[in-house]
Design a protein that fits this description.
- This protein has about 240 residues and is α/β, with parallel strands linked by helices.
- The chain contains eight helices and 13 strands.
- It has helices spanning about 35-40, 55-60, 65-70, 75-85, 160-165, 170-180, 185-195, 215-225, and strands spanning about 5-10, 15-20, 25, 50, 75, 90, 100, 105-110, 120-125, 130-135, 150-155, 200-205, 230.
- The strands form two sheets. The protein has a seven-stranded mixed beta sheet with strand order 7-8-9-10-11-12-13, covered by helices on one side. A six-stranded mixed beta sheet has the order 1-2-3-4-5-6.
- A hairpin with a 5-residue loop joins strand 9 (about 120-125) and strand 10.
- The longest helix has 12 residues, at about 215-225.
- The protein is globular, with a radius of gyration of 17 Å.
């Protein structure tokens, strides 16, 4: 059974603990290491590995500390070079090349973001559960079958963003970047409708924008669309 714990989610940092009951992993380490320690109740040594989607600081800030703690970090070659990190704890991975970490089987896939070789992850347990993790992407080109847990970015809503631009709260340059690198509520809905949700138990909406989102609205609309349990983590735990 998959269990998900959000240590942090959003523009200030992203970090999630996921476990199948046997192998605990971190997805991202984009917050201070001491906050990761606290979020894990100081049981850092139990973590079998850390998957990093790309090189932006809100996803990899603590990578060097994670490595010093003796935990392998998995990332693309592009992310490794962009972060400028080396060492035997860095495990480079590629899209569509399956790997195993403990009891997890993981298939990385390409995402669409303004980063060097960003990745999402399809993660399967020995019991047949499947977790999809996709963040910092303006769309996902693939469809998935048999998902039980979905962790997907839901960064902004077009109408909120448009109003903020009109009111001078968001620069046009930032608007254009969001449109080309982050998942909107509208696109999340289209993505969910395009996929098989019959076995889905939980949907986690991640990485909400500080200014261009509405957590209650996002949760309500995705629940109404899917009939599934929806979680929206927004802050450090």
């Amino acid at each position: 059974m998959i269990e998900i714990t959000a240590l942090a989610s959003g523009s200030q940092g992203n970090c999630y603990r996921v476990t199948d009951g046997s192998t605990p992993l971190l997805l991202e380490c984009g917050i201070r290491f001491k906050d990761i320690q606290r979020g894990l109740n100081f049981r850092v040594s139990e973590i079998a590995g850390c998957l990093i989607s790309h090189e932006h600081q809100d996803h990899c800030k603590a990578a060097r500390d994670i490595i010093k703690a003796g935990i392998d970090c998995y990332m693309s070659q592009g992310a490794k070079e962009a972060i400028g990190i080396t060492g035997h704890r860095i495990r480079t991975i590629k899209a569509k090349q399956q790997l195993e970490i403990g009891t997890w089987t993981i298939l990385p896939f390409e995402t669409q973001h303004d980063a060097a070789e960003p990745l999402g992850f399809l993660m399967a347990t020995g019991d047949g559960d499947k977790l999809l993790y996709a963040t910092d992407t303006y769309y996902v080109r693939y469809k998935f079958v048999g998902l039980t847990h979905i962790m997907v970015e839901c960064n902004y809503c077009p109408d909120i963003l448009k109003a903020n631009v009109a009111n001078g709260l968001v620069p046009v340059e930032l608007k254009n970047r969001l449109l080309q690198s982050h998942f909107s509520l509208k696109n999340v809905k289209e993505f969910l409708k395009a996929n098989d949700l019959s076995k889905v138990q939980e949907i986690w909406l991640l990485h909400l924008s500080d200014d261009n989102s509405d957590a209650e609205r996002f949760k309500r609309e995705i629940q109404e669309l899917t009939g599934k349990m929806v979680f929206v983590p927004t802050q450090l735990r």
